[in-house]
Write a structure and sequence with these properties.
mainly alpha; 14 helices; G protein-coupled adenosine receptor activity; 2 strands; Adenosine receptor A1; about 375 residues; Rhopdopsin 7-helix transmembrane proteins; cell membrane; two-stranded antiparallel ribbon
């Protein structure tokens, strides 16, 4: 039997090593990109960094421990229990980070004009601390007694020295995994995030339709178009998390409610690989869906891995700022129009903030009227530079 399982186990271990490498590399680049690029240092990316740190821990800590467990290591009961609880803590932190991101995007669309005042960096940092605190409480609950120690002692499968074959199901109670972890702290946040993103998409499309009916220009829609694009990217991250973790939780439900049901080992391996692989896919989503991350990744790769001389990323203005500086007068001389700088271009498009007729007439002689002179177009919100 063990010889028949050896190829499958070897394949599983090999895939775990590959996932661990890309998980650590990709998420280190996420943290690195945020560190060296000022335009990525807003509240949303604060939560993304928290999620990346959890994924780094999965690749550097959890996967090596999972490989160790897969070979049937004999350990003390509480040592094995601590390994299992570490996985639970990191899983819960990822879920809560995704929930914080969803709430942050909801507030950005719901209250765009007062978002900066309500969601400060200090409050975002506090939210990250709360998420990790709750994750430790939920994940370490089995260490407080909700585990299989009593059951193993009752059926005589555990000696006085408490040495066991370290496997997740041997130490973690399925009652805890299903009723407390899955039904209490995994499924409700996922459903809540589904509702939040549905509401976000509804509000954005409502605003886009309203703006489209109010004007023939497309520029007032820039804010909500940017928000829609980023919301789709983050919703994709949530979707990938759900399809990666739900199979394993479904297997746990089968284990609890149908103890006699057969669970093929290869299905368990696939479910475990999906959970670990989720830690490696998020940087790929950021790279392909979020331009700021894609540009930062390319610059990091060229400068630090290919040893090419590229401009410093830390003090480099955003692409949008460079374009505005070059085209400020409409003649490409790099001197921005002072009237554009003096306008309150820091809030999302809304009624009552367009320049007056006198201001438009004063600005008119400075350069020919063009599509770029639309007064509404001159008012991109600050949040756009962070997306």
């Amino acid at each position: 039997m063990s010889e028949a399982l050896a190829p499958a186990q070897a394949l599983y271990i090999g895939m775990e090593v590959v996932i661990a490498f890309f998980s650590v590399l990709g998420n280190v680049m996420v943290v690195w990109a945020v560190k060296i690029n000022k335009s990525l240092r807003d509240t949303t990316f604060c939560f993304i960094v928290s999620l990346a740190l959890a994924d780094i821990a999965v690749g550097a800590l959890v996967i090596p421990l999972a490989i160790t467990i897969s070979i049937g290591l004999q350990t003390h009961f509480y040592s094995c229990l601590m390994v299992a609880c570490t996985v639970l803590v990191l899983t819960q932190s990822s879920i809560l980070a995704l929930l914080a991101i969803a709430i942050d995007r909801y507030l950005r669309v719901k209250i765009p004009t007062s978002y900066k005042r309500v969601v400060t960096k200090q409050r975002a940092a506090m939210a990250v601390v709360v998420c990790w605190t709750v994750a430790f409480i939920v994940g370490l609950t089995p260490m407080l007694g909700w585990n299989n120690l009593w059951r193993l002692q009752q059926n005589g499968s555990l000696n006085e020295d408490l040495i066991i074959t370290c496997q997740f199901e041997n130490v973690i109670s399925m009652d805890y995994m299903v009723y407390f972890n899955f039904f209490g702290w995994v499924l409700p946040p996922l459903l809540l995030m589904l509702v939040i993103y549905t509401e976000i998409f509804y509000m954005i499309h409502k605003q886009l339709n309203k703006k489209a009916c109010a004007t023939n220009h497309t520029d007032p829609n820039k804010y909500y178009n940017k928000e829609l694009k980023l919301a789709k990217s983050l919703a994709l991250v949530l979707f990938l998390f759900a399809i990666s973790w739900l199979p394993l939780h479904i297997i746990n439900c089968i284990t609890l409610f149908c103890p006699t049901c057969d669970k093929p080992l290869f299905l368990i391996y696939i479910a475990i690989l999906l959970t670990h692989g989720n830690s490696a896919v998020n940087p790929i989503v950021y790279a392909f869906r979020i331009k700021k991350f894609r540009d930062a990744f390319l610059k990091i790769w060229k400068q630090y891995f290919c040893c090419k001389d590229v401009p410093a990323i830390l003090n480099q203005p955003s692409e949008k700022d460079r374009q505005e500086n070059q085209n400020g007068n409409g003649n490409g001389n790099g001197n921005p129009n002072p009237n554009r700088d003096s306008q309150p271009a820091l809030s999302p498009p809304q009624e009552g903030q367009q320049p007056s007729l006198e201001q438009m007439q004063e600005a008119k002689p400075q350069r020919p009227q063009s599509h770029n002179d639309d007064p509404i177009q001159q008012k991109p919100p600050m949040e756009l530079n962070n997306i």
